[in-house]
Amino acid sequence: MTVEVGSKTEGKVTGITNFGAFVDLGDNQSGMVHISEVADSYVKDIHDVLKVGDTVKVLVLNDKNGKIALSIKQATAKPRPSHHHDRKPKPQHHVESFDDMMSGFMKQSEERLSTLRKNTEGKRGGRGGRRG
Fold it and tell me: pTM above the 0.85 mark?
């Protein structure tokens, strides 16, 4: 059985390095979980999270030249997208159209340029000015 990119499977941690963990997927296949794919939060020392012999659920990220990249955090982070969907309908405030936002931006931009011009007007031709 070959592992497919995007599939979830279980494996056993067979080795740990400073940069990740090697996971035996069975059928003489193994992959590596980079330290950044071990947990949702920052992992300073992978030994704090995993140990050899642990059974872990992994998501197959890619398989290049027989080197299989795995992720533990993406395999277990399924509930998260549903929370994002729950948040989308909540903002019920007025949503500006692109044209409204653009005209607001242009107005602010003109005001800032006007202020900038006023502040630099009097400084032209002063000390150190380029005069020929």
Answer: no
The gap from C-alpha 128 to its chain's centroid, in whole angstroms, comes to 49
Q: Which domains does the chain have, with CATH numbers?
A: 8-78 (2.40.50.140)
- Across the chain, where does the E strand assignment appear? 8-16, 20-26, 29-34, 55-64, 67-71
Helices (DSSP H) in 41-97: which residue ranges? 73-76, 79-87
Q: How far apart are CA 25 and CA 36, in angstroms?
A: 20
* SS3 call for 18: coil
Provide the 8-state DSSP code for 3.
Answer: -
Question: How do the pLDDT tens digits run along the chain, 132 residues long?
Answer: 578 889 999 999 999 999 999 999 998 899 999 999 999 889 889 999 999 999 999 999 998 887 999 999 999 875 554 445 555 555 555 566 777 888 888 888 888 888 888 877 766 655 555 555
